[in-house]
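Anyone able to model this chain together with adenosine-5'-triphosphate?
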Amino acid sequence: MRSRSSGPRRASGSAGRGMWPADGPDPLLGHTLADRYKLERVIGHGGMGTVYRAEHVVIRKPVAVKVLDAAHSERRTEVERFLNEARAASKIRHENVVDITDFGSTSDGLVFLVMEYLEGEDLASTSEREGALPWRRAAAIVLQIAAALEAAHAQGIVHRDMKPENCFRLRRGNDPDFIKVLDFGIAKIIEDSDVERPSSSGLLGTPEYVAPELIRGLQPDARVDIYAVGVMFYDLLVGKLPFAGESFMSTLTAHLMQLPQPPSQARPAAQIPEAVDTVVLRALAKDRDQRYANIREFSAALRAAIAEADAALAPPPLPLPPPPEPEPRGLHPRVVIAAGTVILLVFSAVLWTMAKRFYTKGQDDGGEGELAAPVVAMAPVVPTRLAAPVNEAPKVEVPKVEAPPVVAPPGEAVKMAAPVATPPQVEAAAEPQVEPDAETAAESEVDGESEPLRGPATTPKSPKSGPGPVTAGEFSTAMTKVGPRVKLECSRYSLRKMEVTVQVVVGPDGSVKSAEPTGSQAGSTLGNCVARVVKTALLRPTRAKSTHRHTFTM
Ligand SMILES: Nc1ncnc2c1ncn2[C@@H]1O[C@H](COP(=O)(O)OP(=O)(O)OP(=O)(O)O)[C@@H](O)[C@H]1O
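re: yes, here you go
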């Protein structure tokens, strides 16, 4: 178990209500504050005051009441700022932000803030007990913290003291990890105050979560919260803080100088995806310009990383069924065969009748009736022979190939070349060759293993079996299908309207055998991301692999 810097603390200051004898009871316990809130139990002590579990005496509802220590409440300007911040924080109104329902001061000078009462524990306690969490669980928690911050930032409120102690974990319905973020806007007052505070708070907030620009004394903005969320995420994933020195100063130095080990390397058994590493490390960038520009971008990147991991887990899509056999033009073979059978049967019957008459006549004439046998033998032959090819494709009619003209030597008569005796017979079972359309010819190349798409038109080769190559139209449709995922997963690496061209080899089974970014994005993170998504595309099976190019606009 690691030690953490925070925990229940005694209120500080030299005088006033905040200091009661260490072993004695809290003097406010049992009192009803502002005629409404009966203070029943001390929940804990923080940098500014004490938090009580209380009951609203009218509606009988439990609430949490934070009462400012005298050291703070005796300073008028500080009280005013506390109340202003409380007013702002009460407007955030988000399910992941603790609801502030009331605030004010009493006639005897107590300044207080009333919140919804939360039953559960803070994230520091969860980490303390459970250590590192599975990455998906950690990500789900962090996304809720980010949602709370997004709502606060939208109101112009920067938390500035994000840490696990300010994130409350409670059960809601079936979800045991529902998060509420506490203490919005309060940290700012602590920092601006000149009241002496416990060293763990320091001038900068909590040292383990403080952004480098705060250490450097720069004017903070919302990106300090992104950095702190990065530290918390790392801690949840790995079970240890990314920057933790032996002392206060060495921790601050680590924030400024030390590069964190990627979470997946720090905890290899956890199978943390590379894309999650990328999100954490970017949130922890020392230079705030290198971080996500806002917390919404952070959340989008984390969601995309989760989606990418989900996609990698999903079973590959079923191969497309082979394209239907092309229907021969004209009558269906079954119709032709049936008609032929009928004609031949009628013809046989006529012959049979004539022969019978002839035979009968012969017998009548005293002869042997010799014709009966051949006609009877013929009858079963005809339907048997015609019924067999029902499943065969019809013969393809082949135009006669003219022999080239022979040029006679001067003076000799021109002899006609013998006509080609046997024109190339195309087997009925063979597929007719599919000619690529113009676009395919421009964009697709078929590699050396198969025939070129555009052979000489006058010398058709006997095609190999199997359907023709993927056309440009089919390829373009497949790329359109993966387009939304390309945008979702890769736009975080891209500026708007950037173009990425990928060269793609589609195998005979219809899967993408390789996808390589080309041109200016060759080898770039963006290019590799696009190629990775393109590799999940699936086309129809063909008789040969083919090469295509496609340009995505981000
Ligand atoms: N609404 C609430 N419901 C239940 N417990 C709460 C609520 N708000 C705060 N607490 C608990 O009260 C204790 C004191 O909280 P407080 O916010 O004063 O301290 P802190 O966050 O630890 O310190 P600091 O204010 O210096 O950041 C903590 O244990 C906190 O979890």
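Residues 6, 43-44, 46-48, 51, 64, 66, 98, 115, 117-118, 122, 161, 165-166, 182-183, 201 surround adenosine-5'-triphosphate (CB under 6 Å).
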